[in-house]
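Module 6 notes. Inverse folding takes a fixed backbone as the condition and produces residue identities as the prediction. Think of it as a translation problem where the source language is geometry and the target language is the twenty amino acids. Below is one complete input and output pair. Work through it position by position during the lab.
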């Protein structure tokens, strides 16, 4: 019988920065991010990892003030594990850590809207804008 993936908060199981970077690379995300940056983020913000034995197969984190607002970031699942509920479990584990923050926001591509709606997120009329330093 194969092991069922387990979602664990960062405070209960360390998430290696290098493993997070491997997930990013598999999706073509954030090529400029370094292991040092990821380690820094993990120290200051809620995060969860999805594990299959010793392998990190998914990751999600949030940015928050800890009181009023939180933003879900970087929900990512290894391509081999997609479609098995890992992303939904990552999101549930992360949202559990964000209780009782009243507003939890996330940004996603159009194709992922149904996935997040199934987890009680709703569209808003807000426009997302970014300022990126060169």
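Target side of the pair, the amino acids:
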């Amino acid at each position: 019988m194969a092991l069922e993936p387990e979602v664990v908060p960062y405070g209960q199981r360390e998430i290696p920065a290098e493993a997070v970077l491997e997930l990013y690379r598999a999706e073509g995300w954030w090529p400029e991010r370094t292991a040092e940056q990821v380690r820094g983020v993990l120290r200051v913000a809620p995060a969860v990892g999805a594990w299959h034995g010793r392998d990190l197969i998914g990751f999600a984190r949030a940015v928050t003030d800890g009181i009023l607002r939180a933003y879900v970031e970087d929900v990512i699942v290894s391509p081999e594990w997609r479609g098995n509920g890992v992303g939904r479990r990552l999101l549930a584990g992360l949202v559990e850590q964000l209780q009782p923050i009243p507003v939890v926001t996330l940004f996603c591509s159009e194709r992922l809207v149904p996935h997040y709606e199934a987890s009680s997120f709703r569209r808003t009329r807000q426009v997302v804008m970014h300022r990126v330093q060169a």
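Reference fact for the lab report: The radius of gyration is 15 Å.
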